[in-house]
Specification:
Length: 268
């Protein structure tokens, strides 16, 4: 980390009840939720995070609802990032070169940004037939923090998310996971978030939706932020739509990593 950069990072994350296949309604919900929460927050956020496919929901029409790169949802994300001087992170489907991707985007206040295409499409749903798998792992930097993006089903694959020691530092400090993870698999969600944090000595933020989708599948949310020891720093209420905040301390993480060098014995 650049010694002149911030050592603290504040996340604001929205456990959203997604309006089914209604982007305009979801833009309005997200904007209002962050505006209201940030207005009374003790600390201005550096990062805003929303669930997977926050603009439409995760369903059988994701390919039909896919946008062109830098389309309407990108413009909404850029405006939200600009208004709050914070990075906006979320996924929506994008059509590019004849393929559809479930693409996690990070959008900066100046309108620039990048993306990661979901590496593991969910084979127990129609996503696997609609959406192409991404093939590249990504790490990007924001305000001195190195961030690894992941999407929902990716969370089950530790090798894909391995924080690799490259001779003088680990690849990333924070993992951001945007998800539509059903409530029936809550135990897996909460356990895997902690496992990925512990094994990678990284902060992990898992941002999930709540409510019920059009097929009747219930989502309990249980969005949370976990530290590098697997301890909960912040958690949304079960089944409640809300914005929560978490403050991450880089210096404490670094001290822990320097003392507990588990990564030096990691298997390939």
């Amino acid at each position: 980390m650049d010694p002149n950069s911030k050592t603290m990072l504040t996340l604001a994350y929205y456990q959203q009840d997604i309006c089914w296949e209604n982007p305009e309604a979801n833009y309005a919900k997200v904007a209002a939720a962050f505006d209201t929460a940030i207005r009374t927050a003790a600390t201005a956020p550096d990062v805003l995070v929303v669930p997977e496919t926050f603009n439409t929901g995760f369903g059988d029409n994701m390919a039909a609802l896919a946008e062109e790169p830098h389309g309407t949802t990108w413009r909404f994300a850029a405006e939200t990032a600009r208004r709050h001087d914070a990075l906006f992170v979320g996924t929506w489907t994008v059509r590019e070169q004849g393929r559809v991707y479930n693409r996690l985007h990070w959008v900066r206040p100046d309108g620039s940004g990048g993306w990661y295409d979901k590496g593991h499409t969910f084979r127990m749903s129609s996503e696997v037939s609609q959406v192409a798998r991404g093939t590249s792992k990504e790490v990007f930097e924001w305000r001195g923090w190195r961030i690894r993006p992941a999407v929902c089903y990716d969370l089950r694959f530790p090798k894909w998310l391995r924080n690799t020691w490259n001779g003088h530092r680990l690849d990333y400090d924070l993992m951001l996971v945007c998800a539509n993870w059903p409530g029936s698999r809550y135990e897996a969600w909460s356990t895997l978030l902690k496992a990925r944090a512990i094994e990678n000595e990284a902060y992990v933020a898992g941002v999930n939706r709540c409510g019920t989708d059009s097929t009747g599948i219930p989502y309990t949310g249980d969005s949370c932020v976990v530290d590098y020891k697997g301890h909960l720093l912040s958690q949304c209420a079960h089944e409640k739509e809300e914005v929560r905040f978490a403050v991450l301390d880089f210096a404490k993480q670094q001290a822990f990593r320097e003392h507990w060098t588990f990564y030096l014995d990691a298997d390939e």
